[in-house]
Amino acid sequence: MTTLSKILAFFPATVMLLSLLSFLWLCGDGGIWALLALVFWLYGFPLIVYRIHSHFYPIKEGISYLRGPDYSPWWGSSQIQLIYSSFPMLEVVLRLIPGAFSAWLRLWGSQVGQDVYWTPHLDLTDRGLVEVGDRVIVGHRVGFYPHTIKPKKDNLILYVKKIKIGSDVFIGAGCRLTPGAEVETSTFVPTLTDIYPNQKVK
C-alpha cells in the first residue's frame, strides 16, 4: 500500500469527525454557520477532494492490480466516496428532491440527462462512472457497479468500465448493472435482471 493509499484510508473517519464537531457546534447554538459547516463536510468536502484527486489521478478503464507498488486511483476514489455507501441516507435525501441527485452525479463527473427518475433506494459505488440519457426511470434497489474485483493468486484484479444507459429506458426493481454494461435507447429491463460485464441490452 502506497503512502497516499494509507492517507486516504483515514478519509472517511476524518469526514465523520469533522461532521460530528459541526453537529455538536450546531447543538450548542452555532446557528446557520454550524449548519453550513455540517453540510459542507458531508457533501462539499468529499466532492472537492474527489475532483482534485481525479485531476491528478484519473481512473483508467480496464484491468489493473490492487496489490503492488503502484497507486490505484480507483482505490483512492472509493475511499473518498465510502461515507455515502456507509450512510446511504445522505444520498436518499437528494433523491427525494426532483433533479437534485442527477445534478449531484454530474458534479462527480457522470453524464446524466434530463427528467431522470431515481427511486430512493439505489446502490451506486462509483459516482463518476455512469452515463445516463434522458427520461430514464431507475427502479427500486437497482445496483450500479462500474467496477469488479476478483482474487488471482496473491493479488486482486480490478476491472473498471463505465455503465452506459440510453434515453427512454426503464430499469426494473432489483436489477444489477456491472462494468461496461450498456442499455440501448427505448429498452425495458425486467425486474431482477443481471447485466454482466460488457453486456449490451437492446
Automatic annotation (TrEMBL):
SUPFAM superfamilies the record matches: Trimeric LpxA-like enzymes
Molecular functions per Gene Ontology: structural constituent of carboxysome shell; transferase activity
Keyword Transferase part of the UniProt annotation: yes
GO cellular component, one term: carboxysome
Membrane-spanning intervals of the chain: 7-26, 32-50
Superkingdom to which the source organism belongs: Bacteria
Keywords: Membrane, Transferase, Transmembrane, Transmembrane helix
Coiled-coil ranges from the UniProt annotation: none
InterPro entries linked: Trimer_LpxA-like_sf
Protein name: Acyl transferase
Species whose genome carries this gene: Planktothricoides sp. SpSt-374
